[in-house]
Design brief:
By secondary structure, the chain is of the alpha/beta class. Strands 1, 2, 3, 4, 5, 6, 7, 8 and 9 form a nine-stranded mixed beta sheet that branches. The chain has ten helices and nine strands. The longest helix is centred in the middle third of the chain and has 17 residues.
Length: 296
Amino acid sequence: FGVVLWFPTTATTTATTTTMRGAAGGGLPLSLANSVQTSRETRRRLAKAEVRWLRVTEEDRAVEARLAFLAPARKPSHGDPSFEAYNDESKQEFAAYFAEDRLDPGNRELPRDVAAAVVRGLGGPSRGFLDLGSASGSLTLVAAATGAHQTCGGLELSPRSHAASLRARGDFARRFPHHANKVDFFQGDLRTFAHFGHYDLLYCAIRGTKSRPRILTDMFRHLFSDPQKHFPDGQPKRFVCAGFGVDLDLDDPSYRNFFRIVRTYCLLTTTTTTRTKNDDDDGGADGLKNIGFYDV
């Protein structure tokens, strides 16, 4: 779900968007809007907001092929000699970084062709693309490879995943030296991140049904606590709430006047069945029977 964050002193500014409606001319089909993890009021807004349907194309698969040299981050299997050490490190990292705030350390990443479809669908160019909860850096590197953004960054709480993203950045830099200076990875907490001012397209797919709404509310309070720092050019930012729901407190007094829902993105797929569509609920699906609800 795309959300525009407004610089507080320019809350009356308007943003230009391209409207792509469902087959019936409305927004997100009601059956999908009602399945979103969010408040009833936000579901009503989603049903009226413009919707953009994405699908993986040959262009996206070409991006995936260009990045095939990047080894995917994998944890060792139970039979692997390194499993016990890996598991001990996981427990120590969870206790140090995730347990106190009851955060979900899940670091799943989109397949790179899907990531390319997401980046392409979000459009560009932007001054800076930032993946909040970037795991091993795959989405950030896909964004950099497309060349659609001036800079690309990834922020990850896990030191181990952050280290993996730095290794991937090194491999990426050797293959694409002309893009290397556009990529930065940070280890830290999105609730205290100091460099939001460098980015105007924020993507967040952190996990946690219970923790994510609280964490994102804290992040927005942090963003709007110092608008001169985090909105240095006075221009709106786009925030993409990915994958699980619109986890925003629309009535929080710290920021309620400075954001609005802009559009919904849905990824169509013929391989992943997460929701079967009704015959009378095609919503612009062009005959595809399944919708992978990576609501980007």
